[in-house]
Amino acid sequence: MSPLLFPAFNNSNTATALHCKDGDWTYAALNKHINQTARALLGNSKDLAEERIAFFMPASADYVAVLLGIWRAGGIAIPLNTSAALPELEHALLSAGVTRLVISGSTDAQVHLGLQALCDKLRVRVLQMEELVAQTAATADTVQLPIMTPKRRAMILFTSGTTNKPKGVVSTHQNIATQITTLLQAWAWQSSDRIPLFLPLHHIHGIINVLCCALWQGAELTLFARFEMDTLLQQVEQHRYTVFMAVPTIYVKIIQQLEALPAPQRADVCAGFAAMRLNVSGSAACPVKLFQQWQQLTGQTLLERYGMTEIGMALSNPYVGERRAGMVGVPLPGVEAALFDDANERITSEEQPGEIRIRGATVFLEYWNNPQATAASFHDGWFCTGDVAVLESGYFRILGRSSIDIIKSGGYKLSALEIEGTLLTHDMIAECAVVGVEDETWGEAVTACVVLKSGQHLSYQELKSWCESRMSPYKIPKQLRVMSALPRNAMGKVLKAELKGK
Questions:
Q1: CB 108, CB 66: distance < 8 Å
Q2: How confident is the model at residue 403 (pLDDT cuts 50, 70, 90)?
Q3: Closest by alpha carbon to 433, among 489, 355, 390?
Q4: Which of 131, 291, 336, 365 is deepest in the core (most CB within 10 A)?
Q5: CA–CA separation, 24 and 56 (whole Å)
Q6: Taking the mean position of all CA atoms in its chain, how far away is CA 65?
Q7: Contact 35, 8 (CB under 8 A)
Q8: CA neighbor of 244 nearest in space, from 203, 290, 201, 282
Q9: Residue 450 · residue 491 · CB < 8 Å
């Protein structure tokens, strides 16, 4: 049996798997849809033999059918970002050597034309999902699907490309199955769980942590093509869900919405969250202030965890036990994690910063067609994450990416994330970003860009005085820019412009 033939998928399981915009799907019906898709992709072949098949689809039953259908037919699944620009899609298709692209019939006509032109240029065959399933003959149910071995390649996800062009991360059937079953054990997944899925489905958070864990365990998923605040909160108020997983930005937006609601409705929605058994935050650092706000509003203690495209989830606060604000917890079952210094020596003492390195069955196989990058990312069998952390009373605390979040100032290694977290506790500050800017005296000067809440005024000297009571002297920003009327989500553009000017 293939490691990715999920136990809950069989023709006799009448439990609900998916709630979709166009209707509900039982596990039995979805299983049939997956098999039909797998056989349609196979055509006259007995095995796709790791053919790279990409798909451009929103969260839907068809998305699930294509993802698992490719796995069952022996191909390598490549989920694409449906918000990506054509040059980004071209890089993914070209670098992975994609031969076929499956798209949804609901794809916007203009987007469809652009994709078709791009695929014509790259000689990639475009398949409409509806046409694909229609190709399956009635007798196709008798066609035997290939048997997968654990070490066969199953999926390519692309990195964010923060330091170079995105790399294709290759995961095997064994990698994915281990990533899933590790989380089922660590977070006590149950077949009675109900969870919304609004996260991007080209990213490991949405694919593995939510979609695959729920389907493997036989739980219920409600699929959203995009984040729909009003609908989601209405369903939370109705106690629709038992588990909730989101990125910190989503939690911030929900808090803002809750604060704008009339008190009785706010109480009902918060009660819906309070009744859940688990709320998880990930994909970015969860500020301590947010952790505390969520706890005060809902009574839920967020479970923060740490992972990457290359390793799945590696560290997690415990499901049962103390969940610490600002911490990402301890290694998950079967995962080895350690800190190493710049000389590649393992750090055994606490509160000494070092690079997180990971070893175990969840770690990816390779970067697609990039042996140099693959070799450079490992040292003595450990995957080098590029993230710097410290151990504090046995729990890992992330300081940031060694390439962008660690500021080397006056001989100290400072965490931009830690400084940002402190600044966000200031009553006047709505948003902030901290970077290191080249400085003759300090090497890098701590530089903060802050957005003030409406109607607030703050001078550098006032902020410096405030910081002096909360930060070590070398962490206090040497440069500051205050923006009181910054458009939402514009901080990144401002920082790019500032740094370019330097």
A1: no
A2: low
A3: 489
A4: 291
A5: 22
A6: 21
A7: no
A8: 282
A9: no
pLDDT grade for 159, boundaries at 50, 70 and 90: confident
pTM of structure: 0.83
**How do 336-340 and 243-246 pair as beta strands?**
unpaired
Report how far residue 372's alpha carbon sits from residue 393's, in angstroms, rounded to the nearest whole number. 37
Tokens found for residue 368: 């697609």
List, by residue range, all CATH 3.30.300.30 domains of the chain: 406-501
Question: Which residue carries 């166009």 as its tokens?
Answer: 22
CA distance 245 to 500: 36
Q: How many CB atoms lie within 10 A of CB 290?
A: 20
What does the pLDDT read at residue 488?
Answer: 46
CATH class of 226-239+247-401: alpha beta
End-to-end CA distance of the chain: 58
Long-range Cβ contact pairs of 370-377 (< 8 A, separation 24 or more): 370/167, 370/168, 373/167, 377/310
In which residue ranges of the chain is CATH 3.40.50.12780 found?
16-210, 226-239+247-401
3-state secondary structure of 315: strand
122, 137, 493 from 70: Cα distances, Å: 21, 18, 38
Q: Is 160 helix (H, G, I), strand (E, B) or coil?
A: coil
Q: How many CB atoms lie within 10 A of CB 394?
A: 10
Residues 6+ apart with CB under 8 A from 429: 423, 450, 451, 452, 453, 458
> Tokens 């040059």 belong to which residue?
87
8-state DSSP, 486: P
Task: Taking each helix axis as running N to C, give the angle between helix 248-260 and helix 229-237, from 0 to 180 degrees, rounded to the nearest 10.
Answer: 70
| Confidence check: pLDDT of 140 > 60 | no
Q: Which CATH class is domain 16-210?
A: alpha beta
CATH superfamily of 406-501: ANL, C-terminal domain (3.30.300.30)
